């Protein structure tokens, strides 16, 4: 059965920052064989560093991952994705050495690929990939942050983490170390009705999971991306905010009921007749 992907994206400086150091990218190959082999790539990077350095780091990361991922035509999708993030780490570090003002710059990154009816993901830092299925939002990626590690060790509750003074401190970033550890996640099937969200902490740090869920379930992808950013700003907009929303639509879905469709791509010969298991929350 044919699946159509409805895609929306939005990035915003927020209400407290002077510059937007986030970068995002939606990459769809023009060639059908490349689309079938490598699928659709969604990237959100949240830069950090001195004046304008964070913006440079996130842009270099997004551009490098896209080039390296699609430039590696062989091997499993998740391996190509992990390798691309490793090479992006090298590129950010190389860029930092060229300009003393950019020394120490870095960026988080979250990546999602939808290919041949499956979702693959990878990340470094605390930018996230979510999957919403049957109206319930699940976090696909782990956060590489100080509070996430304390929560995993049972030393901090989720409620305490929201107020912790080190809640914004990440333990991994592209550009931070030469041997950065990229975390990749097993591929899982997608089906009609699923919604994939890739976002920076400027979104999920401002609005709770249930609000993200309430926004993405009824809206078209672009309307959802716009509404997510607006909600984060309404909650205070303490950071730059970025979100990519990708809704998986079946061949029989009425696109007339969805507004503001900005881009669609199709995959044929994808089995959507057999219900797929819901991936368990990873956090």
Label this structure with key terms.
283 residues, alpha+beta, Phosphatase 2c, domain 1, 6-stranded antiparallel beta sheet, 5-stranded antiparallel beta sheet, 8 helices, globular, disordered C terminus
Strand content: 25-35%
Mean pLDDT: 86
CATH fold-level assignment: Phosphatase 2c, domain 1
Uncertain spans, ≥5 residues at pLDDT below 50? 254-283
**CATH-scheme architecture:** 4-Layer Sandwich
Number of separate helices: 8
By secondary-structure content and strand pairing, the structural class works out as: alpha+beta
Brief characterization of the structure:
The chain has 283 residues and is an alpha+beta fold.
Protein described:
Helices cover 30% and strands 28% of the residues. By secondary structure, it is of the alpha+beta class. The protein has one domain: PPM-type phosphatase domain (Phosphatase 2c, domain 1, 4-Layer Sandwich). It has a six-stranded antiparallel β-sheet. A five-stranded antiparallel β-sheet has the order 2-3-4-5-8, with helices on one face. Helix 2 packs antiparallel against helix 3 (77-97).
């Amino acid at each position: 059965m044919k699946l159509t992907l409805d895609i929306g994206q939005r990035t915003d400086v927020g209400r407290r920052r002077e510059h937007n150091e986030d970068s995002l990218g939606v990459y769809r190959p023009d060639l059908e064989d490349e689309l079938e082999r490598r699928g659709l790539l969604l990237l959100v990077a949240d830069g950090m560093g001195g004046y304008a350095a964070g913006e440079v780091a996130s842009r270099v990361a997004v551009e490098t991952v896209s080039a390296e991922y699609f430039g590696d035509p062989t091997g499993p999708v998740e391996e190509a994705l992990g390798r691309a993030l490793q090479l992006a780490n090298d590129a950010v570090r190389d860029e930092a050495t060229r300009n003393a003002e950019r020394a120490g710059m870095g960026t988080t990154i979250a990546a999602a690929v939808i290919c041949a009816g499956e979702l693959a993901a990878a990340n470094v830092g605390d930018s996230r990939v979510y999957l919403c299925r049957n109206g319930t939002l699940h976090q696909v990626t782990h956060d590489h942050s100080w509070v996430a590690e304390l929560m995993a060790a049972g030393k901090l509750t989720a409620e305490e983490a929201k107020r912790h003074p080190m809640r914004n401190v990440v333990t991994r970033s592209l550009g931070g170390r030469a041997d950065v550890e990229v975390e990749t996640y097993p591929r899982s099937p997608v089906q009609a009705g699923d919604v994939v969200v890739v976002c920076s902490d400027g979104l999920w740090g401002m609005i709770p999971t249930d609000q993200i869920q309430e926004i993405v379930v009824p809206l078209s992808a672009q309307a959802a991306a716009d509404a997510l950013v607006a909600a984060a700003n309404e909650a205070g907009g303490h950071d730059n905010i970025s979100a990519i929303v990708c809704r998986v639509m079946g061949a029989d879905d009425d696109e007339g009921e969805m507004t503001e469709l900005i881009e669609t791509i199709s995959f044929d010969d994808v089995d959507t007749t057999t219900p797929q298991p819901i991936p368990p929350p990873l956090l």
